Amino acid sequence: MAPELITALIGFGGAILGGLIQAGFSYRQAHAQFIRDSRQRDYNLFVEAIAGMSQASLGSDERRGFIAKAIEAKGNIILNSSPAVLAAMVKYSAHAALASEESYTDFANLLAAMRADIGGDVSKTLAPQVRAILFEGTSR
Questions:
Q1: Domain ranges of the chain
Q2: Please, are residues 46 and 36 in contact by the beta-carbon 8 Å criterion?
Q3: Taken in order 11, 16, 21, 26, is the CA torsion positive or negative?
């Protein structure tokens, strides 16, 4: 076989191998971004529902709508989230309502797990900030 042909075949093989490696990395990166975006939408829906329920009057149609939204979000979280978020969701879901210090702590821990799952920062001030933003000064 002529040396020029061998050189051409090696170059062609290298180009194909490089393209396959690039395609693999691109797929992996796109898939990871899709998972992050999906989880973030699910977590946003859940937090929006909880915040809405904390502001809506008991027994109102608005509150029932937020409860339905929370149920949808929980289903999505069960299907899409990380094991750490599921474990935190189990602890949070053991409370019938956010009415005790333990329930607020479990909710803050759930939010911290969600933030960590999508690459967000988790600070020690998260729990009091969440409580102040979502629940302080509201009528339940």
A1: 36-134
A2: no
A3: positive
**Of residues 56, 61, 62, 92, the one with CA closest to residue 74:** 92
Separation between Cα atoms, residue 53 and residue 62, nearest integer Å: 8
Residue 23 zone, left/alpha/beta (φ > 0; ψ -120 to 50; rest): alpha
pTM: 0.73
- pLDDT, one tens digit per residue, over 24-73 is 999 999 988 999 999 999 999 999 998 888 888 888 999 999 999 999 99
End-to-end CA distance of the chain: 84
Alpha-carbon torsion, ordered 19, 20, 25, 30, to 10 deg: 90
Helical H runs in 2-138?
Answer: 3-55, 61-80, 83-93, 101-117, 126-134
Per residue in 6-32, pLDDT (tens digit) is: 888 889 899 999 999 999 999 999 988
